[in-house]
Design a protein that fits this description.
8 helices, alpha/beta, Glycerol-3-phosphate (1)-acyltransferase, 7-stranded mixed sheet, about 240 residues, about 45% helix
Length: about 240
């Protein structure tokens, strides 16, 4: 019963913050207020759910720099956890389907988030151009979940090349992010929220130059994936 009450509060909070975000996206095109709202939104979600967060590696993030954060993904709580602890203004790459949700999807489309249609190459290229402008002009970092979808088991799945295609074209350093604990709190396909602790580790930035071949992207992808897996093993 308590879990369903938490879910109800979270839904109401999401509707309220989505409305405020929609307004802020119109009046503040720097998106700085949107960023602070996203942190507030996430803080309340975590508080209501009885979830604490432990972070490490924050010293690897220069608050004056712009990054591509690449993380593993196994729960709906990955997003609020990262929105709350990433210390620099950040955007999220999201699936086109989410943009169709009334109010919630509208504010995402109007805000700094980057919508991508994996089936449409032209749309994907436009997303890359939007990411470049957002990062270069607005100084927003970008968060990517390289697996493309949540892992059912909590194990790190194979990475999708698309995330690294985008990363290689925007040209900013990648920070591998290792998340553990979220799968126990709310696994994929479940609705009962359990109390717990989420561990977030930020590794050192991975820089790269002159990536133009598919082979180079795949090598970068494997390197980042291995870093994330190793850090999760060290956390356990």
């Amino acid at each position: 019963m308590l879990s369903y009450l938490k879910l109800f509060v979270i839904i109401l909070h999401t509707i309220f913050c989505s409305f405020i975000a929609l307004v802020l996206s119109i009046v503040d095109r720097s998106f700085k207020s949107y960023f602070w709202l996203s942190r507030y939104f996430s803080k309340v979600i975590l508080l209501v759910s009885g979830i604490s967060i432990e972070t490490s590696g924050l010293e690897n993030i220069n608050k004056n720099s712009v990054y591509v954060f690449v993380s593993n993904h196994s729960s709906q709580f990955d997003i609020p956890a990262l929105q709350y602890v990433i210390p620099v203004p950040s955007s999220i790459v999201y699936k086109k389907e989410l943009g169709q949700i009334p109010l919630f999807g509208w504010q995402m489309r109007l805000g700094p988030y980057i919508m991508i249609d994996r089936k449409n190459i032209e749309d994907a290229l436009r997303s890359i151009e939007k990411a470049k402008r957002l990062m270069s002009v607005k100084r927003f970092s970008v968060l990517l979940f390289a697996e493309g979808t949540r892992s059912k088991t909590g194990e790190v799945q194979k990475f999708k090349r698309g995330a690294f295609y985008l990363a290689s074209h925007v040209g900013f350093p990648i920070i591998p992010v290792s998340l553990s604990g979220t799968n126990k709190i709310l696994p994929k396909g479940k609705f009962k929220i359990k109390k717990g602790t989420i561990h977030v580790h930020f590794d050192k930035p991975v820089s790269f130059e002159n990536i133009s071949l598919r082979k180079d992207e795949l090598e970068l992808m494997d390197k980042v994936r291995n870093i994330i897996i190793q850090n999760i093993k060290n956390e356990v």
